[in-house]
Write a structure and sequence with these properties.
Blueprint lengths: L7 H22 L2 H8 L3 H8 L2 H11 L13 H10 L3 H20 L1 H28 L13 H16 L5 H16 L2
Length: about 190
């Protein structure tokens, strides 16, 4: 008899396999057949649990980031940012960067993937970032009329994209910490 509910361990195993396949073959070549074979599960089970390839991929990405930004509140914007940056090591950042590079191309060809990424990953992160910034404004650390507030997400995404393009290097903690101290905080007047 088929299981209707996967154990958390089995779910983690499936998500890890999806991310490994994504890194190996890219989004377009990733198939539900390949995931089923890699995880010794049936395609029917995969479709019953996740409905579609974009949903499976995005849920795997989200599962990989267990801490949401909303849960971080150190009492200062600087503390919050460093807590966010400190939750991922350089090795994981490099893997995440490789995944995002692979997905950034696929997003243009696959509206379903784009929508799933927006709904499940990007919007919650933006909401969490907005909350961190709103708390900083409420504490008086950032002026509410600071024009840079609406560009913080652009700055952070830009840091990831630019490091690879400009220096042909992956983003790491040292770079991000320096970037936040040199660019984001001064722009916010922190």
């Amino acid at each position: 008899m088929a299981r209707t509910r996967l154990t958390p361990e089995r779910e983690s195993e499936l998500y890890a396999a999806v991310l490994d396949l994504l890194r190996e073959v890219g989004y377009d070549a990733l198939t539900m057949d390949a995931v089923a074979a890699r995880t010794r599960s049936s395609k029917a089970t995969l479709y019953r649990q996740w409905g579609s390839k974009p949903e499976l991929v995005v849920k795997a990405l989200r599962h990989n980031k267990p801490v949401s930004l909303e849960e971080i509140d150190t009492g200062s914007l600087r503390g919050d940012f460093h807590a966010v940056l400190g939750r991922t090591d350089d090795c994981q950042m490099e893997k995440d960067s490789a995944l995002m590079r692979g997905l950034s191309h696929a997003v243009h060809e696959n509206p379903d993937l784009y929508q799933a990424l927006r709904d499940l990953l990007i919007e919650p992160e933006m909401t969490g970032l907005d909350l961190l910034l709103r708390r900083a404004v409420d504490r008086g650390e950032v002026r509410p009329d600071n024009p840079a507030l609406k560009y913080v997400s652009h700055m952070l995404i830009g840091a990831f994209a630019a490091r690879q393009l400009v220096e042909d290097r992956s983003v790491d903690q040292a770079f991000l910490n320096d970037y936040v101290e040199s660019v984001v905080f001064p722009a916010l007047g922190v």
